[in-house]
Amino acid sequence: MNMSFHFNNPTNLIFGAGRLEELGSQTLPGKKALLLISNGNSVKTYGTLERVQAQLKRAGAGYVVCANIHENPSKEVVMEAAAIAKENACDFILALGGGAVLDAAVAVAAMTTNPGDLWDYVHGGTGKGQPLVHAALPIVTVATSSGTGSEINCWGVISNHQTNEKIGFGDPSLVPVLAIVDPELMKTVPPKYTAYQGFDALFHNTEVMISNGVNILSETIALSAIESIAAYLPRAVADGSDLTAREHVAYGSTIAGITMQLTNTTAQHSMEHAMSAYHHNLPHGAGLIMISKEFAQFFIDRHACDEQFIKMARAMGLPDADKPQDFITALVKLQEACGVADLKMSDYGIAKSECMTLAVNARETMGGLFLSNPCPMSDAECAEIFEKSYR
């Protein structure tokens, strides 16, 4: 076990049911927020936006609402939101929403204060990899779903539709200063998206567990998160109003935001980003589910990290697990319990002939995560995982 790690997170995390009401009593990092939300209607329909606006007023902060963020957010919407923040002299970002909004907030905060285009600062693919010139706006997050863990870390994944790239963007300076995770806000997420987001959170933790950078702290908290998600995600999918289930899944997601600061995820995420870079209507969690079984099987067949798979299988409800294949058993059982075991790539327009294109794209755009795999994976082997997963 690796006993060495580096952890630095200055986020003031407030977690628990009903704790949105504490936002107005916190010291906010500015006087005028860009209140960033999605282009959907959920936060308006269920009154969450109005509640946050009331909390900002209570804290003595003004705001401008920007409602342009879509699923798999693109660099164009990031630049639009940054322009609105500049025009209105906003001095901090308040991101209210699910993973797309939280991811986008990281990039919006940076581009509000920095010149040029977002892709000037992106590392990987066609990104220019330049350092940020100016400090970004501070970020406050209020999560309304459980998936990305972006409420508490400095990373967001942004798409470039012109180049078919979907790449993680971040910088240690972009860690949110305040995060509120209130599971009551998640009770209205539809079952399908509860499952997709929950599996995204699960895979953040399972990938940390098999990463060659796993350490004593990231493993300990990742296993805790895996246990919570595996036990309670089926309940959250079956009954969105089950607050206990929502609390445990939210815990697993937020913990993933921490485990990913301690240990990188693996190429499973690079591979899915390639899928949704070409097929923008594919929910990230759904894509991860589609390739998850064969991705894990690749390393199980090579005995790359047998003990890690056994530990995860035990955490997922198989206490007598004694072989790595038991992880696949537990994973499939969980997918079946959540109604997502039969997802098909073809339903989202993906053709089997794309497998090598996706493999190459995954490495070109987010090749760093391949270095975290527990053993090497060639482009041909990556394409084979796509092919075996294809339906």
Q: What does this protein look like?
A:
The chain has a 6-stranded parallel beta sheet, with helices on both faces. Strands 6-7 form a two-stranded antiparallel ribbon. The protein has 13 helices and 8 strands. The chain is α/β, with parallel strands linked by helices. The longest helix is centred in the middle third of the chain and has 23 residues. Helix 6 runs antiparallel to helix 7.
Q: Quick recap of the structure?
A:
Helix 5 (191-210) packs parallel to helix 7, helix 6 (216-238) packs antiparallel against helix 7 and helix 9 (284-301) runs antiparallel to helix 11 (325-337). 47% of the residues lie in helices and 12% in strands. The chain has helices spanning 42-45, 48-58, 75-87, 99-113, 191-210, 216-238, 243-262, 267-278, 284-301, 306-315, 325-337, 355-366, 379-389; strands spanning 12-15, 32-38, 62-69, 92-97, 139-143, 155-160, 165-170, 178-181.
Which structural class best describes the helix and strand composition?
Answer: alpha/beta
Helix and strand element order:
EEHHEHEHEEEEHHHHHHHHH
Helix content: 40-55%
Rounded to an integer, what's the Rg over CA atoms?
20 Å
Poorly predicted ranges: none
- Major β-sheet annotation: 6 strands, parallel
- Secondary structure tally, helices: 13
Descriptive keywords:
391 residues, single chain, 47% helix, 6-stranded parallel beta sheet, two-stranded antiparallel ribbon, 12% strand, 8 strands, alpha/beta
